[in-house]
User: Which sequence fits this backbone?
């Protein structure tokens, strides 16, 4: 498989992963509405707080991954992906 073929396969994988992350983020947004509803009991409020904190961490992680994917795709478009930024040598796709 040529380097161009490997890059194209990687590009397709990154685009697919980005779509998955965006779907998950949309699902999280819908779930946030449920978590934000007032709790009637202390235990329920504590559970919702823990759930909200976990969702917030997940949301942050997904956002960072989407940004990393966007940077990788931009480098691919510019023809710079897979090259060391310091010495400009090719880096193996693996």
Assistant:
């Amino acid at each position: 498989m040529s380097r161009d073929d490997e890059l194209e396969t990687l590009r397709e994988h990154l685009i697919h992963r980005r779509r998955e992350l965006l779907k998950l983020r949309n699902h999280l947004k819908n779930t946030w509405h449920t978590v934000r509803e007032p709790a009637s009991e202390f235990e329920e409020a504590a559970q919702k707080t823990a759930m909200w904190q976990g969702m917030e961490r997940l949301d942050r992680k997904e956002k960072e991954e989407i940004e990393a994917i966007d940077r990788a795709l931009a480098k691919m478009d510019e023809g710079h992906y897979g090259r060391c930024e310091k010495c400009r040598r090719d880096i193996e796709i693996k």
Notes: The chain has two helices and no strands.
